[in-house]
Amino acid sequence: MTTSEDSLLKLQETIYFSSNYTRRRLHQIRLRWVSAAIKAYAPQIPISRAIEYGPGSGIYLGVLAEDCADVIGADIEPAYLSGIERLLDKFENLQILVDDIQESKLEDASFGLVLCTEVLEHVPSPELALHTLYRILRPGGILILTTPQRFSFMELFSKIAFLPGVIQLVRQIYREPILEMGHISLRTATELRTSIADCGFEFLSEDKFGLYLPFLAEFGGAWGGRRIATIERLIKSSPLNWVLWTQAYILRKPI
């Protein structure tokens, strides 16, 4: 494993427990949403075989393993999968597999549930990836999907954060690993919804969450984080919800 791959894995393991209230909340709110979606829909699926693409630190694999008969964690990079091999001893119904979400070798209609969280933004063609997810789902199967919004404050300000001279200051403020996110294929909610519909998915549920406000996030502590959460609740159902970081969907392949 290269130094950069090792750093990324360590970052994925620590972001949910960041010492910064807002940074921690941005990831934990997604963790709670995805975990709740798995718990709600996995028991309803007759064929409870599940796969997660891009499992990162493996935080969702245990949730899937509790409610699905067979679970696969798949990634195009073997090095990332090696970082979660420890989970194989913990969950007997878990496997890991090298597979490319854009050129998958998996059979058609082979899974009842597919999880794809924070992956589409890293691949050259999210649309091609969505077609793979549709293809490998059984009719009636569920896709749980999250990805950042293209023009969210988090994405816009992160570009500023990595400018020369700025990133050194950001790292001094957070005193935690701060790495470029590598988001190459961001989509607006309108763009993504169109691509989802073009694949043939049915929309069961959708949400947006994760407000980032600079300075208040860095220097406001828990008080600032709670103020941000209050503002987020007001924005959620308004036309301004494009500023929220994460767009999340529960989708079904028609029977």
Can you give a write-up of this model?
The chain has helices at residues 3-14, 21-41, 61-67, 78-82, 87-90, 126-136, 153-161, 166-174, 189-199, 216-219, 221-236, and strands spanning 49-53, 70-75, 94-98, 111-117, 137-148, 202-209, 246-252. It is α/β, with parallel strands linked by helices. It has one domain (3-252): 3-Layer(aba) Sandwich (Rossmann fold), CATH 3.40.50. The protein has a seven-stranded mixed β-sheet, sandwiched between helices. β4, α6 and β5 (137-148) form a beta-alpha-beta unit. The chain is globular. The model has no long low-confidence stretch (mean pLDDT 91).
Radius of gyration: 18 Å
User: What's the order of the H and E elements?
Assistant: HHEHEHHEEHEHHHEHHE
* % residues in beta strands: 15-25%
What is the CATH C level class, in words? Alpha Beta
Looking at CATH, the homologous superfamily is Vaccinia Virus protein VP39
Largest sheet: 7 strands, mixed
Structural domains: how many? 1
What gap, in angstroms, lies between the N and C termini?
A: 42 Å
Named at the architecture level, the CATH assignment is 3-Layer(aba) Sandwich
Q: What is the 3D shape?
A: globular
